[in-house]
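Hypothesis: this fold can be encoded by more than one sequence.
Test: take the structure tokens below, design a sequence, compare later.
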């Protein structure tokens, strides 16, 4: 490898470390605060052969609203420079690995995220059997919860103090695709459908189907059984898309068995 390439790699690693040190701060109680998203993180004890159930039991033993993180929250850490070569505050002095368990559990299969840095510097997620604990199904245990009051509710509007966006969610009912743009027009005053990136931002900040506050303070049927599917702007052409607050993914109506009749209208505008 040429000296210039080695120097570039060293500079990039130093830059990532400096950015992480500014963004992630260690609290007096040993937790970690993400100053960008407002999330708090707790690093669990690492056991070489702990499966998803072991990680979930550890998180459930904590108090004050700690949860396993979503895949998007873990991916956000990875993109911020946290990885197996640079754990920073997320390092555990005990047994360490590159996989971290997420909250995604479908049947007997759980998803985990790989913080290993490969040749393309891309983190990946994979699905494994949650009921089997072995060296091949190991995952570190992180816990996450909302930190400072990023979201402020008033007069049926949620204000994101981090992005300076205002959010509106319909207090009841659902709508089909051909109705959602009509609703945006009726709201007026700059209201529009959110983009995928805007919805991912609040999802990463801890607003998921498991805990939809503060939106659930406005609309009380926001829970997993009701789907928590909302309309969003689609990058794929004429049709709008659906964002799933369980998986943090975007779908086109009709795919994955989703009915457009169960989608909630949501709007956003600059504050």
């Amino acid at each position: 490898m040429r000296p210039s390439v080695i120097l570039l790699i060293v500079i990039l690693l130093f830059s990532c470390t400096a950015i992480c040190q500014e963004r992630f701060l260690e609290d007096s109680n040993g937790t970690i605060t993400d100053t960008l998203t407002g999330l708090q993180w707790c690093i669990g004890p690492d056991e070489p052969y702990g499966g998803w159930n072991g990680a979930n039991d550890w998180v459930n033993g904590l108090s004050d609203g700690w949860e396993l993180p979503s895949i998007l929250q873990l991916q956000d850490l990875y993109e911020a420079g946290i990885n197996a070569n640079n754990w920073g505050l997320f390092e555990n002095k005990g047994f360490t690995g590159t996989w971290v368990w997420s909250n995604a559990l479908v049947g007997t299969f759980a998803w985990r995220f790989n913080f290993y840095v490969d040749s393309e510097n891309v983190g990946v997620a994979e699905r494994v059997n949650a009921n089997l604990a072995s060296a091949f199904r190991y995952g570190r245990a992180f816990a996450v919860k909302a930190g400072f009051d990023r979201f402020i509710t008033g007069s049926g509007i949620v204000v994101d103090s981090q992005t300076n966006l205002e959010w509106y969610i319909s207090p009841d009912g659902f709508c089909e695709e051909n109705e959602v743009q009509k609703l945006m027009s009726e709201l007026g005053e700059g209201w529009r459908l959110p983009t995928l990136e805007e919805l991912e931002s609040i999802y990463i900040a801890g607003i998921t189907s498991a805990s939809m506050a503060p939106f659930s303070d406005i609309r009380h049927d926001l829970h997993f059984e009701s789907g928590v599917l909302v309309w969003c702007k689609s990058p794929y052409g004429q049709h709008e898309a659906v964002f799933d607050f369980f998986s943090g993914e975007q779908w086109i109506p009709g795919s994955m068995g989703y009915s457009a009749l169960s989608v909630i209208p949501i709007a956003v505008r600059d504050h």
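The CA atoms of residues 58 and 149 lie 26 Å apart. Confidence is low (pLDDT under 50) at residues 4-15.
Hypothesis status: open.
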